[in-house]
Structures are given as structure tokens and as C-alpha cells.
Amino acid sequence: MTKRELNQQTAQVLEHVSASGQSVTITERGVPKWQVVPFSPESIDPLDLAASQGRATRPETGPVAWDLVKEQSPRRYTTQQIDELVQWVKGDR
User: What share of the chain is helix, strand, coil (3-state, %, to 5)?
Assistant: First the structure.
């Protein structure tokens, strides 16, 4: 389908994609440029969605095993220090 046809028949194309579950390739001057595909909530990573909406930031590094974290951070915190930290996080800033 051409870009012009999509522009003139957007509702019908979207209905076709939803009903059939098939994707539609859109061309510009005979060259395939875009694809309209059916939405699948399972294919969306919640963190990607939140990041695209500006509600989250992806970590700079991947997850680290808990044992490695414990070994790199030998410092122990007292209950009072943890309580102070929690109060600081909850407080207005």
C-alpha cells in the first residue's frame, strides 16, 4: 500500500490490521518504508513504555547478582541509619 492510500484510507487499514492480525507494509515511491502491525501488549516491555513516556530511566548497567553487590559493599547500616534514610526518601524535597 502506498503512503497516499494509507492517508486516504487510514481507518479501513487500521480496522483490517486489527481484524486480520496481519501487518501492512507502506511504501513511498515504490520503496517499503513503514509497517502497520497489530498491537500486542505482551510485546511491550513495561520499562520501555515508562521510559518512552518520561516516567522512568533505564539503568546504565545490567542487573548484578546479589552476592556480588554484598561483596562490593561491605558496609553495614544500623537500624537508625536505615530509618533516617527512609524518612528522607519519604520527605518533601
Answer: 50, 15, 40
